[in-house]
Amino acid sequence: MYRIREFSAMTGLSQSKIRFYEKRGFLLSHREENGYRVFTPEDAFRSNAFRMLLQYGFSIEEAIELVDANQETQSFIHTLQTQHKKLLHEADVISCRLARIQKALTSANSDISADFEVVTMPDYFFVRASLGSDFSISLENASARAELYDLLYVSHCVRIIRYENLIDDSPEVDIDYANAISEEDVYRVSESSRASLSKFRLGTCVRFRRRLNRTESVRRSSFSELYDYLDTHGYKAKSDAIIFPSFLNLDSRNSDIEVIYVPIV
């Protein structure tokens, strides 16, 4: 038999944690006549088995339930397989988030005011949240938009410049807001939501990366460098353009970094 101080030293569990597990019904200490808690070697083995389940990523509640389960059953094996799939998904999410934050750091540390490159882009699937400043369309396909928000580690909050607005002479660009996900990641979206998405064909594009604030970004004059680049190189926009903002600065004083893709011919 071990008293709580000895059991704590042997198992590496703090005394407060031992008491916490006792309250949860995981550890059941015995009481000596003098009132001291005592534990057995079986309690130590049990605590190690419990912590192994925690290493597998199970919650405390799940581990308490599983530690007494018959581990020679197909049900227990299925539980481990399910947890394995869950951890693979979490690893995928973390990998995507690391890539996103690396891009944000690269952009934040750059001093580029305007940068152009001709690139080949995958197609995207999207659902609109607005038509210009009219957000009534956001009520349509709300479940698909909610799902894309849940997938923000791979999906994007984007802005779309309609083709006719690209080539007219209006003083401001009337931008549509949307949620989008690349063709290579659309498999993550449920079939029911996928049916609500429209396809945004990109292919060969001029990528225009710029740094400016929100007020400036909708002015027609802020696109003059883009128009000059297209004209100088003999390119013509063939469809809507899509903007990927970084959302690092949202006020009208500080600058955000936008990447604009214009499909060209």
Structure description:
- The protein has 265 residues and is of the alpha+beta class.
- It is built from 10 helices and 11 strands.
- It has helices spanning 4-11, 15-23, 41-55, 60-66, 74-108, 142-150, 163-167, 191-194, 214-217, 224-232; strands spanning 2-3, 30-31, 37-39, 114-121, 124-128, 156-161, 176-182, 198-200, 203-212, 241-245, 256-263.
- An 8-stranded antiparallel sheet has the order 4-9-11-10-6-7-5-8. A 3-stranded antiparallel sheet has the order 1-3-2.
- Strand 2 and strand 3 (37-39) form a beta hairpin.
- The mean pLDDT is 90.
**What does the overall shape look like?**
elongated
Query: Low-confidence spans: pLDDT under 50, at least 5 residues?
Result: none
**Largest beta-sheet details:** 8 strands, antiparallel
Q: Which structural category do the helix and sheet elements fall into? A: alpha+beta
How much strand? 15-25%
Q: What order do the helices and strands follow?
A: EHHEEHHHEEHEHEHEEHHEE
Number of strands: 11
Q: Any idea what the radius of gyration is? A: 28 Å
Provide the spatial order of strands within the biggest beta sheet. 4-9-11-10-6-7-5-8
End-to-end Cα distance = 81 Å
What average pLDDT do the residues reach? 90
Helix content: 25-40%
Q: So how many helices?
A: 10
Short overview:
The chain is α+β, with helices and mostly antiparallel strands.
SSE layout and pairing:
Layout: E1 2-3, H1 4-11, H2 15-23, E2 30-31, E3 37-39, H3 41-55, H4 60-66, H5 74-108, E4 114-121, E5 124-128, H6 142-150, E6 156-161, H7 163-167, E7 176-182, H8 191-194, E8 198-200, E9 203-212, H9 214-217, H10 224-232, E10 241-245, E11 256-263
Antiparallel strand pairs: 1-3, 2-3, 4-9, 5-7, 5-8, 6-7, 6-10, 9-11, 10-11
